[in-house]
Amino acid sequence: MAYLVLGLVLFLGVHSVRIVADGWRTQTLARMGEMPWKGLYSLVSAVGLALIVWGYGLARQQPVVLWVPPIGMRHAASLLTLIAFILLAATYVPRNAIKARLHHPMVLGVKVWALAHLLSNGNLADVLLFGSFLLWAVLSFRAARQRDRAMNTGYAPGTAAGTGVAVVVGAVAWVGFAFWAHAWLIGVAPLAR
User: Fold this and answer.
1) Which of 33, 70, 104, 125 sits at a 20 to 30 Å CA gap from 17?
2) What local confidence, expressed as pLDDT, does residue 191 receive?
3) Distance, CA of 132 to CA of 118 (rounded, Å)
4) Which CA distances in Å does 147 have to 16, 31, 66, 101, 141?
5) What is the mean pLDDT of residues 168-180?
6) What pLDDT is stored for residue 192 in this prediction?
7) 3-class secondary structure for the chain?
8) CA distances from residue 71 to 68, 125, 145, 175 in whole angstroms, order as listed
9) Which stretches make up the NnrU domain (predicted)?
10) Is 90 exceeded by the pLDDT of residue 52?
11) How confident is the model at residue 3 (pLDDT cuts 50, 70, 90)?
């Protein structure tokens, strides 16, 4: 469990700099330069992510069961992860109404993804992993919206075509992940019969 915790501290810590120390980040970025800052940020993120994956894998070998979620939570989690994939796609598809309305769909996608996994998993490692990401996403979304208001940030209006593409890309990615990649990467088939 220690590797999981260390990975979460590193990964979410570096991703929380704008939440807790935006002024320091701006000064450090100006002092270091963009490329060294991005390099250090990426290195710490990669190490943190590797520790999360390794630590979570180790923790799953000796699970500490806190509760057993009802079977119906798997269905709720499937629907929520579909929404999370659409939100993720909306982050990158230009001129879609989802991003125009919500402004930060990736962070909202992380929030929905984490909630889905908390509903459908009851082990200590699951609560630690997904609960940490949920808390981070809530704080990150709030901070991003505050920055938007302070800077009077505007977002391009969405179009029906852009929105349709975001929904289709998100749904197709979800199908690929839910029916194939999740079992291959994580070792759990969420939609197994």
Assistant:
1) 125
2) 78
3) 10
4) 14, 22, 38, 16, 10
5) 96
6) 67
7) CHHHHHHHHHHHHHCCHHHHCHHHHHHHHHHHCHHHHHHHHHHHHHHHHHHHHHHHHHHHHCCCECCCCCCHHHHHHHHHHHHHHHHHHHHHCCCEHHHHHHCCHHHHHHHHHHHHHHHHCCEHHHHHHHHHHHHHHHHHHHHHHHHHHHHCCCCCCCEHHHHHHHHHHHHHHHHHHHHHHHHHHHCCCCCCC
8) 9, 19, 36, 20
9) 4-190
10) yes
11) very high
Q: Which residue has the tokens 């019969």?
A: 193
The pair of structure tokens assigned to 66 is 């806190």
Residue 182: which of 63, 64, 61, 85 has the closest Cα?
85
Arithmetic mean of pLDDT, 104-121:
97
Task: Give the C-alpha separation, 45 to 8, whole Å.
Answer: 10
Backbone angles phi and psi of 65, in degrees to 5: -80, 120
Q: Give the amino acid at 30.
A: A
Give this prediction's pTM. Answer: 0.90
Is residue 193 over pLDDT 60? Answer: no
Q: How far apart, in whole angstroms, are the C-alpha atoms of residue 20 and residue 58? A: 31
